[in-house]
Design goal:
219 residues; alpha/beta; Rossmann fold; 5 strands; globular; binds thymidine-5'-phosphate
């Protein structure tokens, strides 16, 4: 059985990843694929508990190193429980965030640096790399405004605050943004960048173009 295809979506909070993953999954299903979907942090029962700690605005003064280690603990569980079995079964895996997020947020945003994050990745993830990463980069201003609106809405509807990251200052997100650009420039074969303030339909078009190319390349 050939190994499946591992596709990740990346971008700032509010970049439209969730909508695009749903659309891409529907597009793949219409072509006879049944993708395995997951998000990080989360995507497993244990990962969802780790997600609560990480995103809850009441988690105060979490050390950047602890934050990074929790991201990788979540990832190790997701790889063992979902990603590896699905790839071994020849399926397409669609993952909402992966190690690029840790490099951008903890490496860039929290200023831990790329080297440390990439070393952790090699140790914890055994070199598992996405075959294709779709990086959504609308303007920084658009992303931030959307993320803050969404967080206020979720909080008003459910009383749960997942806003620990959204509460960060703009300078933090500028560093995240910069690190994402660095990753894309470093790995142009893996990372397809969808840039600018495009409509949902326009972003979807660019995504399916990149995915179709990858599907053709792997037969
Ligand atoms: P999301 O699931 O709504 O995209 O939110 C996840 C948040 O966690 C988002 O603000 C980015 C952050 N995050 C990191 O800081 N590092 C990571 O490794 C991952 C996966 C997410």
């Amino acid at each position: 059985m050939p190994r499946g295809i591992f596709i990740t979506l990346e971008g700032l909070d509010g970049s439209g990843k969730t909508t695009q993953i749903e659309r891409l999954a529907a597009w793949l299903r219409r072509r006879g694929h049944e993708p395995a979907l997951l998000r990080q942090p989360g995507g497993t029962a244990t990962g969802d508990r780790i997600r609560q700690i990480l995103l809850d605005a009441r988690t105060a003064a979490l050390a950047p190193m602890a934050e990074m280690a929790l991201m990788f603990a979540d990832r190790a569980q997701a790889i063992a429980e979902v990603v590896r079995p699905a790839l071994d079964a020849g399926r397409i895996v669609l993952c909402d965030r992966f190690t690029d997020s840790t490099e951008a947020y903890q490496g860039g945003g929290r200023e831990l640096g790329s080297e440390l994050v990439l070393a952790m990745h090699r140790l914890v993830c055994g070199g598992l790399q996405p075959d294709l990463t779709l990086l959504l980069l609308p303007s920084l201003e658009t992303s931030l405004a959307r993320a803050r609106r969404r967080n206020q809405r979720v909080e008003a509807e459910t009383g749960a605050s997942e806003g620990r990251f959204e509460a960060e200052k703009d300078a933090f997100f500028r560093r995240v943004w910069q690190k994402y650009r660095e990753i894309a420039a470093r790995e142009p074969d893996r990372v397809a960048v969808v840039e600018g303030d495009l409509t949902i339909g326009e972003v979807h078009e660019q995504i399916v173009e990149a995915v179709a190319e990858r599907l053709l390349a792997t037969g």
